[in-house]
Task: structure prediction
Amino acid sequence: MSRRIISLLPSATEMVCALGCGRQLVGRSHECDYPVEVTSLPVCTESKLLPNATSRQIDDQINNLLGASLSIYRLNTRLMQEMKPDLIITQSQCDVCAVSEADVAKALGNWPGTPPQILSLTPHRLADMWEDMRRVAAVLGVSEHGREVLRPLKNRCVDVIEKSCLLQRPSVACLEWLDPLMGAGNWVPELVELAGGRNLFGESGKHTGKLRWDELRAADPDVIIAMPCGFDLARTRSEMASLLHKPGWGDLKAVRKRRVFACDGSAYFNRPGPRLVQSLEILAEMLHPEKFHFGHESKAWQKLA
Result:
């Protein structure tokens, strides 16, 4: 059964392609950029945020839009109608991260003819990502193939867990935003534990709020990992400047021991799709370089101090 799919969620786009159904995609969001072949698809969304804004300015813009009960994204409804989709994949996990189910439902209000089916994903943990892939496979009529795709992904996770469970666990602070500081929640604390770390901020399955500098300083983590939401590796390195002048930065254990890392959060940790497996491997490489080497360094993460 072939579908005409518009994916408004980067992780869902990756799922569709991993399941061998990429040719059924007829439209994407402005953030769907992997695998590279999807970048030729028509773009059905855009962000209202200023592209060159600083982290602090982005946070202010988001708070202003959400405070006024406005969406952060615009949907090109006319283009979506021209694509004639019978399935639109979106999410209801975070109004900031991607186009929400409510935005899509509103856009379908004046849809000519029979509106397309909406599949909304709501991942909070690693297990939710597996379940979302099963749901997408079922909707696309490839459930058996979906199980075959999931099996090696899960086995890669098991390979990491079997080695990491015997290692000494460093304390880890994962930062999802740098100005203001925010810890990383949802699936990230779980990934840290599976990779052989002891997560300091954020609770598995829940969003994490703002983090005060004095809290980070008092915790004095063994490892600090920057993975700002929506930022690639180069942008993360640039944004780290906001931390370098904080009082006591140079005294932190992670800084003194040169265990501060920058990651491509946009491609990996912020995107609850198949590449969460690479995210686990990246964490294992950073936390236990003597035991793990998957080749992700310099491409997905870099040491900063």
